[in-house]
Amino acid sequence: xxxxxxxxxxxxxxxxxxxxxxxxxxxxxxxxxxxxxxxxxxxxxxxxxxxxxxxxxxxxxxxxxxxxxxxxxxxxxxxxxxxxxxxxxxxxxxxxxxxxxxxxxxxxxxxxxxxxxxxxxxxxxxxxxxxxxxxxxxxxxxxxxxxxxxxxxxxxxxxxxxxxxxxxxxxxxxxxxxxxxxxxxxxxxxxxxxxxxxxxxxxxxxxxxxxxxxxxxxxxxxxxxxxxxxxxxxxxxxxxxxxxxxxxxxxxxxxxxxxxxxxxxxxxxxxxxxxxxxxxxxxxxxxxxxxxxxxxxxxxxxxxxxxxxxxxxxxxxxxxxxxxxxxxxxxxxxxxxxxxxxxxxxxxxxxxxxxxxxxxxxxxxxxxxxxxxxxxxxxxxxxxxxxxxxxxxxxxxxxxxxxxxxxxxxxxxxxxxx
Length: 418
Description:
Elements: H1 4-7, H2 20-23, H3 28-35, E1 41-44, H4 51-62, E2 65-70, H5 76-85, E3 95-100, H6 107-111, H7 114-118, E4 122-128, H8 132-135, H9 138-141, E5 145-148, H10 154-168, E6 174-176, H11 178-187, H12 192-205, E7 214-216, H13 218-225, H14 237-251, H15 255-267, H16 271-286, H17 293-307, H18 313-325, H19 331-345, H20 404-417
């Protein structure tokens, strides 16, 4: 029997779940497919996220004959056979070759693709789960446009599960409880095929009641996926309680608690909340005590977003443990909030004349820039002069934190300013 994931494979973009950054209205890949003019492309991303489905739709939109090869077991002879088909009546409107797992082709095999895609007889869509810039040769890359497919969010997987249940109901009445649906969606690691396979197994193993109805419960879903359910409502109070505990644990320098709360969020696939929150913590809670923290954190976040779950947990754990164990300073947020408080209350004043812009005709006549002292012309690149408006000229917003970095900086300026 054909697997459920294949039986309900979408034949139109409107039914493809996830990949909104590529397939949303007006996005680049959807625009290309709607045009019917399909270029050579490489689809890069994890398994079960729609690469093959989109290739099928591309062939349909372009009215081309679709041939599929898997580089794991295909050969140069198979590629040549597809090229020959492009010259037959079957390929009158052109041929689209979908080559799955292209990273398994060696250099010679990949080179066999060049001539046919160069002269346009065959349009190539290759897919890979590995970074194509490492595994696909430059000659192929230069002739293809790379599109990165991402892990599918649980809410989008839930949509696919709902559609799948309707298909299953054609043979028997299947009821998928909300708890079971949420569990399967969250347990599939962004892989729609994996979720649909789990649903199919659950449907086959569910027992019918006296009315012939099969109910897929949370308990059955847990048995099917081999994972226990973890309750977490992303839109409820619990979500914000976990985020709050996460940041307060980092601020309180408890690395164990910080990793625990981060793991709660990652377990339900909430990668975005973790990434956003640790960037905030790097600036708000570590701040100037270790200014490089936000640079390192940003690198870890970028790596996590590129890797996707589950591997994303590794650089994120590195960042969280670093932030939790570093010295802390909130001097930056205290300074900017105090300044914004003055501005909000209207307690400011005019920019001093000597600091005003002089890069236009007539500025000198207005007295702009008059008396300004250029700090680089003085010893230690510093000279005393007023910078704040007269009304708040003595205001102090920044108070150095009691940590090694800020203390050293404060001592330096104390020595320079006298």
